[in-house]
Amino acid sequence: MDPSFSNRYCIAGIGHTRYGALPDTSVENLHVQAIQQAVADAGLTKYDIDGVLCLAPVSNFQIGYAVKLSGLLGITPRILGALDQEGASIITLIGYAMMAIDAKQCSVAVISYADNPRSGSRAIYGAPRGTDGIFGWFGTPAAYAMIARAHMEEYGTRAEQLGSVVVACRKHAQLTEHAERHREFSMEQYLSQPMLVDPFRPADCALVSDGGAALIVTSLAHCQSLGIRDPIRILGIGQGHQPQDLSHRQKLTTSGAVASGRQAFAMAGLGTSDIDVAELYDCFSITVPITLEDYGFCDKGEGGPFVENGRIEIGGTLPVNTAGGLLAETGLPGPQLVIEAVRQMRGNCGERQIMDAKVALVSNQGGIMQTHSTLILGR
Amino acid sequence: MAIHDPHGIIVGNIEALYHPTPETLPFWEGCSHGQLWLPQCCECRTVLHPFDSTCSVCLGPTRKWIQASGDGRMITWVIYRRLYNPAFTLPYVVALIALSEGPHIISNLVDCSEATIKAGMPVRIVFDQLTDRIVLPRFRPHSILLEADTYDHSRQIL
Predict the structure, then answer these.
(1) Which residue of A has its CA nearest to B95?
(2) In this predicted complex, what is the ipTM?
(3) Closest chain B residue to the Cα of A194, Cα to Cα
(4) Cβ-based contacts of B9 with chain A (< 8 Å)
(5) Pick the CATH number of A138-207+235-378 from 2.40.128.110, 3.40.47.10, 3.30.70.2330, 2.60.40.1120
(6) Which end of chain A is more exposed for a tag (fewer CB within 10 A), N or C?
(7) In whole angstroms, how large is the CA radius of gyration of chain B?
(8) Residue A136: which of B24, B56, B88 has the nearest Cβ?
(9) What does DSSP assign to residue A21?
């Protein structure tokens, strides 16, 4: 976005339900609970919301979802809509909310997501890939494993480096009360896991989770009249995309993060050295080294060595996924990463707080690394 | 319908995974004759993926079908060690292959030990007749083809 949008909008509230297996709660209930939490966190009421933006449930996609959600909330917002950028949607919706507020179409927008693939149907994650199911080409893990293999072949990335991402996320989740994975998980345990789709083990793959999460976006100008106590400033936003099918990409090991990161950093007027904490979309372990490379934290191909030796762990030079990410906190497609970045900027993360953290970077990513969005937040 | 997969990957009913359309029929009919046919844009002459119904380069409205060499190179691959569908047997290799004519396609790599698979490795097409109507294009290392050609070419109608 244009730099004139930087430092004028904020995340005013965050909320989420419990995560994990929630078989007794409907998706609608999860969604409303999450929004209620976010509204309360901002010190607002539902009647303050005049923009409802969401991603429809991935495991049970339906049209008209934002209208349905507004009805569940008992409000008639001035603007509403569901956007489908798959896992990149949440950050992109934050950007679109800013544009809508700028255009005076609304003043307080809720951005939200809820789904229950764990208790409902996870069929979408194991479905035949397009018309290629006849070659045994099934499931999301295999598609990312193709990218991981390409990265390993091209740059010498090793299993221990993918494992370093998993171990870091698992460690951080142990410090996060609401995270789904709490048990210790060592490199030895990672390496001894049988392969799922070689080169991926089950631990390389995102959790499949029930839950809901929501954010409130408004302008800093509105904060005083709304009584927002601790707004977290939006400094940069970007997005970048590439062809949907792996077969239509010229290069598999570079993602939309290149374009998306460039936009977000330019808008914020910041560089990689300004980032104190990063929440990166780790639907599969390989996305972390690739995203770090594409954002410019290291050279292309150096993402493997970068994530080793505790560098991305709390206490390391660039703490990544401080609540555990999709690998260990919860498998929701993105909002939990924004929420954790907001918590880090508020400085109330307890044991896992990054001391003096002033700038946080968040990535969201969708499909098979085909959509990407970037958010930079600051105190 | 009885399945006889010469490479033993498929052991169950895969009819539900086989769905030629009017726009992909020439590809599948070619396979049943032991030939690889690819669509080519009539406007800009880009050779397209077999399942592309439109040209994403120039958006030209018409395609024609050309016969391809069946040669290519491995881009990347995965080895399935857990079953997603009971019609298959483990392990099997799914590969992304760059065809000499340009398009990249998903297929299986066969007749190759796992340890010797490499990105960039030359591969050549083989046609596996699975049922009376389903012939599947798969790939094997080209060097094996040259050095020790054990493939039963009687399956191919050239």
Answers:
(1) A146
(2) 0.94
(3) B81
(4) 136
(5) 3.40.47.10
(6) C
(7) 16
(8) B88
(9) -
